[in-house]
Design a protein that fits this description.
Elements: E1 7-12, H1 20-30, E2 38-43, H2 53-74, E3 78-85, H3 87-102, E4 106-114, H4 117-120, H5 125-134, E5 140-143, H6 146-155, E6 161-163, E7 186-191, H7 200-212, E8 217-222, H8 228-237, E9 244-247, H9 252-261, E10 264-267, H10 277-284, E11 288-291, H11 297-300, E12 308-309, H12 315-327, H13 329-346, H14 349-363
Parallel strand pairs: 1-2, 1-3, 3-4, 4-5, 5-6, 7-8, 7-10, 8-9, 10-11, 11-12
Helix pairs in contact: 2-3, 7-12
């Protein structure tokens, strides 16, 4: 029997993929939204699947046709496109946006990071003008940060913009003084995609600096990505095998356990971040972020209130900040407690579900 609930068709990568958008989709599907709307997914991109050149070409050519057929067959009340302002994703998702609007669907166009619109085609006036028009087509453009809100309003005044920040499911966490005692090594983690622009090589260099300073610490990298093999080589070349561990991606209980064992989250990213889920997860678990203030990150945390900001591409600054936490466990505890409260107050999945319930209800 067909559901009488309004149908929301969400576009995004495989829900098993290691990506922030996959996490976002899983949260929406697992939230109370399912009681008010019939949620279904149209998978885009190749995340979660290995494809050769022929397979990729076939996917690119057939995916718009498949989406058209899906919309005509199911007539969703809202098409929710999850995109990012990076060339590959933008052009792919532009085709989906055009199809949805031609078929008279209401469209939510959610941008998960990437370049700001002023920068995306900064050397091409024609494409910049097209982008300005594109942003006026969706019924709502959803953004993750106040910085993005200001930039998009300035760039595309006709766009209908709404801020809905990312969130996480809260779990119990031990944030007691006993956890952060100074008679053991500082446990530092990185959780996420292993990519050069996430600052992973700067983190390895910071680990080398701390070792040479005689600081007792241990680093764990949990994830996968294009930098995995060169990262392993960098760890070996620096002679850090006894202090730095490269783990596979972690999920569920294993991820919670990794966070619970950690003291600090090293993330000196220079990627155009949206709002990293790993930042929210670390703060919720009492793990203090030592992080670069890019994208929506300054919306979530304040320097020396919830964590420490460090400049990107500066391993020495990262090492200095981590050494400070190692030597001041009272500061570590204070930041951990403040970070947990910040997530409890502002970044719960219940809040995100309520935001999207209101948004969908206004369109469906």
């Amino acid at each position: 029997m067909k559901s009488s609930l309004p149908h929301i068709l969400l576009l995004g990568p495989a829900r098993t993929a290691v990506s922030g958008v996959s996490t976002h989709l899983n949260q929406l599907f697992g939230s109370p939204l399912a009681a008010s709307f019939r949620l279904s997914q149209f998978q885009v991109g190749s995340e979660g699947a290995a494809q050769g050149k022929i397979g990729t070409l076939l996917r690119v050519l057939t995916s718009p046709i498949k989406l058209t057929a899906r919309i005509l067959r199911e007539r969703p009340a809202v098409v929710h496109i999850n995109t990012s302002f990076e060339p590959k994703g933008y052009w792919r998702d532009l085709a989906y946006l055009v199809i949805a609007k031609v078929l008279r669907c209401k469209v939510v166009y959610q941008v998960h990071g990437g370049a700001l619109p002023q920068e995306f085609f900064e050397s091409n006036r024609a494409l910049t003008a097209l982008l300005r028009r594109v942003l006026s087509w969706p019924d709502v453009v959803v953004l993750l940060s106040n910085r993005e809100m200001a930039a998009y309003r300035d760039f595309a005044p006709r766009a209908r913009i709404r801020l809905i920040a990312n969130a996480i499911e809260l779990h119990d966490a031990d944030i007691s003084a006993a956890r952060y005692v100074d008679d053991r090594p500082l446990e530092i983690v990185y959780v996420g995609r292993l990519a050069d622009n996430k600052g992973v090589f700067e983190t390895v260099e910071a680990a080398r600096i701390l070792r040479d300073r005689g600081i007792d610490m241990r680093f764990s990298f949990a994830g996968s990505g294009p930098a995995e093999r060169p990262l392993r080589a960098a760890i070996d070349a620096a002679g850090l095998g006894a202090r730095v561990t490269l783990l596979a991606p972690v999920f569920g209980v294993a991820k919670l356990q990794l966070w619970q064992r950690a003291d600090a989250f090293a993330f000196p990213t220079y990627h155009r971040e949206g709002l990293p889920y790993a930042l929210l997860e670390s703060m919720a678990a009492g793990v203090v972020p030592v992080i670069s203030p890019v994208g929506a990150i300054p919306d979530v945390m304040q320097h020396e209130v919830h964590g420490l900001f460090v400049p990107s591409r500066n391993p020495s600054a990262l090492a200095d900040a981590l050494e400070r936490l190692h030597g001041d466990r009272e500061l570590l505890l204070r930041l951990a407690l403040a970070g947990r409260k910040r997530i409890e107050d502002q970044y719960s999945v219940a809040r995100v579900a309520g935001d999207f319930r209101q948004l969908y209800a206004g369109l469906a």
